[in-house]
TrEMBL record, chain A:
Signal peptide: none annotated. Heterotetramer of two alpha-D chains and two beta chains. GO terms for biological process: hydrogen peroxide catabolic process. Keywords: Heme, Iron, Metal-binding, Oxygen transport, Transport. Pfam families: Globin. Belongs to the globin family. The keyword Ligase does not apply. Residues 2-142 form the Globin domain. This is Hemoglobin subunit pi. GO terms for molecular function: haptoglobin binding; heme binding; iron ion binding; organic acid binding; oxygen binding; oxygen carrier activity; peroxidase activity.
Automatic annotation (TrEMBL), chain B:
Involved in oxygen transport from the lung to the various peripheral tissues. This is Hemoglobin subunit alpha-A. Keywords: Heme, Iron, Metal-binding, Oxygen transport, Transport. Residues 2-142 form the Globin domain. GO terms for cellular component: blood microparticle; haptoglobin-hemoglobin complex; hemoglobin complex. GO terms for biological process: hydrogen peroxide catabolic process. It comes from Manacus vitellinus. Belongs to the globin family. GO terms for molecular function: haptoglobin binding; heme binding; iron ion binding; organic acid binding; oxygen binding; oxygen carrier activity; peroxidase activity. The keyword ATP-binding does not apply. It comes from the Eukaryota. InterPro entries: Globin (IPR000971), Globin-like_sf (IPR009050), Globin/Proto (IPR012292), Hemoglobin_a-typ (IPR002338), Hemoglobin_oxygen_transport (IPR050056), Hemoglobin_pi (IPR002339).
């Protein structure tokens, strides 16, 4: 699955807006993830997962920074996220199904904040993009 | 997810061992899949899915032939299955989750007929291979 030029452009465009609220969107996405899919909390026994927790906000920022990196290097997501890919393969080992869940939550947060920008085409491009990111992060598992 | 040289050689070994039984295995794989995952029958409203059905046997042969082709071109599965990939994207549109189910059933068939063959390492290689085939066949969906 490769992103077309149009899709890459759509991702970059919406990111310009998302980036202005990246931290908030990151924290909100994680909040959505933990409330809709409580099983995902299993990876964070060491966190305070209550609303507004500093750890949640910090981690949300990390996640969105990585997404931002991927946007910046949308032509070489694999290269841009190589270290993160290894981290997930050898240390974190987050079950691949969870990437879909987090991607979905990020999508929801973005859609909620930018309803008029989130056209079907932008939705599809963003979903493909997050799918690519997820693939890269799980490709070294085995 | 990339197949290592060990994976490729394991896969070739499995298919060498299966040899002429591939077609039979294909049919049995479908039978198991329809029995265990009845939702997969949705793609075959035009088939007689009863035991020993000639259509299932015929289709099993096709599926097996594709897997054999992929194994024979394990260095370029995308190239080898390019037409099949187009077919699935433009016409068949089998939901991606079903490729995993078919893969599992194929693995079960191989294991049940060749218990000593499927060591943990060979099992992992074959599973990776089947995942790679699934990925290629869904790569052009969007």
């Amino acid at each position: 699955m490769t992103l077309t030029q149009a899709e890459k452009a759509a991702v970059v465009t919406i990111w310009a807006k998302v980036a202005t609220q990246a931290d908030a969107i990151g924290a909100e996405s994680l909040e959505r993830l933990f409330s809709s899919y409580p099983q995902t909390k299993t990876y964070f026994p060491h966190f305070d997962l209550s609303q507004g927790s500093a750890q949640l906000r910090g981690h949300g920022s990390k996640v969105m920074n990585a997404v931002g990196e991927a946007v910046k290097h949308v032509d070489d997501i694999r290269g841009a996220l190589a270290k993160l890919s290894e981290l997930h393969a050898y240390v974190l080992r987050v079950d691949p199904v969870n990437f879909k869940l987090l991607s979905h939550c990020i999508l929801c947060s973005v859609a909620a904040r930018y309803p008029s920008d989130f056209t079907p085409e932008v939705h599809a491009a963003w979903d493909k993009f997050l799918s690519s990111v997820s693939s890269v992060l799980t490709e070294k598992y085995r | 997810m990339v197949l290592s040289s060990a994976d490729k050689s394991n896969v070739k070994g499995v298919f060498a061992k299966i040899g002429g039984h591939a077609e039979e295995y294909g049919a049995e794989t479908l039978e198991r899949m329809f029995a265990t995952y009845p939702q997969t029958k949705t793609y075959f409203p035009h088939f007689d899915l009863g035991k020993g059905s000639a259509q299932v046997k015929g289709h099993g042969k096709k599926v097996a032939a594709a897997l054999v082709e992929a194994a024979n071109h394990v260095d370029d599965i995308a190239g080898a299955l390019s037409k099949l990939s187009d077919l699935h994207a433009q016409k068949l549109r089998v939901d991606p989750v079903n490729f995993k189910l078919l893969g599992q059933c194929f693995l079960a068939v191989v294991a049940s007929h060749n218990p000593a063959l499927l060591t943990p390492e060979v099992h992992a290689s074959l599973d990776k291979f089947l995942c790679a085939v699934g990925t290629v066949l869904t790569a052009k969906y969007r």
